[in-house]
Structure formats: structure tokens, C-alpha cells
Design goal:
Structural class: alpha+beta
Length: about 80
């Protein structure tokens, strides 16, 4: 009987952690992450950023790209393809 209770507690903990992770989903990515995603070189990735094709913000001294605006831009362009999926 105690094993069933332990399993129930473990299941509840897993569900709680899963819910917490959903709340903390990322909303930005770094320029090097975008570079790897598109298979670009450093100059090309910063060229895209400085053309203001998607929203960027400086967080902790690092430039971050808004994922929502990046995905919107990516869906409406034909030149670049994601390397990793």
C-alpha cells in the first residue's frame, strides 16, 4: 500500500515540475544560437540582426533575439533554412 502512495507522490511531483517548466519557457535566443540554427557565419548572423528583421533586446549586456518575431520572419522568407530542424 505504501508503494502506491509513493508512486502517487512521485507522479504529482513530476506533474508539478512539468507545469513549472511550461511557465518558464524561453522567449529569446542568443545570436550564436540563431547562427547555429541557420548554419551561418558570425558576420552574416549579425548582418541579419542589424537589418532589424526581427526584434532584439539587450539583456545582461548580451543581445537577445525575440523568438516570436524570429519565427514570424523565418516563416515569411525563402533564403535561409534551419540546419538542425
Amino acid at each position: 500500500m505504501s508503494e502506491a502512495k509513493d508512486l502517487t507522490e512521485i507522479r504529482q511531483q513530476i506533474q508539478q515540475r512539468s507545469a513549472e517548466q511550461k511557465l518558464t519557457q524561453r522567449s529569446t535566443m542568443s545570436v550564436p544560437e540563431m547562427r547555429k540554427l541557420l548554419g551561418l557565419k558570425k558576420t552574416d548572423s549579425y548582418w541579419l540582426v542589424h537589418k532589424n528583421l526581427f526584434k532584439t533586446q539587450i539583456i545582461g549586456g548580451m543581445m537577445r533575439i525575440d523568438l516570436e518575431s524570429f519565427e514570424k520572419w523565418y516563416a515569411n522568407q525563402v533564403k535561409y533554412k534551419k540546419v538542425g530542424g
